[in-house]
Amino acid sequence: MFFELARLALSNLTRNRSRLIMTVSGVIVGTTAVMVLLALTFGLQNAAESGLGASSALTEIRLYAPPAFVSREDMDNPAPILDDDTVNELRAMPGVQAVIPTLSFYGSGELVSGDYHAYAPIVGIDAALVPMLNVAIAQGELSLKSGEAIFGGQINQYFVDPEASEYEPIEVDVFAEPVVLRITSYSDNRQRDFRLRPSAMLAPGNGLYDSLLFLPLEDVMSLNEWVTGERQSRRDISYDQAIVRTTDREITQDVAEAFRDLGFYVEDAGDFIRQLNDFFTTLRLVLGSIGGIALIVAAFGIANTMSMAILERTKEIGVMKAVGARDGDVLTVFLVEAGLVGLVGGAIGVLITYGIQNVVNGALQQAAAAGENTGGGGAMFFLPIDPTRFDGQLLAIPPELPIFILVVATLVGLLAGLWPAVRASHLLPVIALRSE
Amino acid sequence: MGDAPDDRTPMIMARHLEKTYRIGTHQVHAVDRVSLAIPRGQFITIMGPSGSGKSTLLYLLGGLDHPTAGDIVINRQHLNSLSSEDLAEFRRETIGFIFQAFHLVPSMSALENVALPGIFAGLGRAEREERAYRLMHMLGLDRWVDHKPTQLSGGQQQRVAIARALFNDPPIIMADEPTGALDSQTGEHVLRLLERMARKLNKTVVVVTHDARIAGRADRVLRLRDGSIIEDTKQLPAATHETHEHETT
Question: Is residue A61 part of a domain?
Answer without folding.
Answer: no
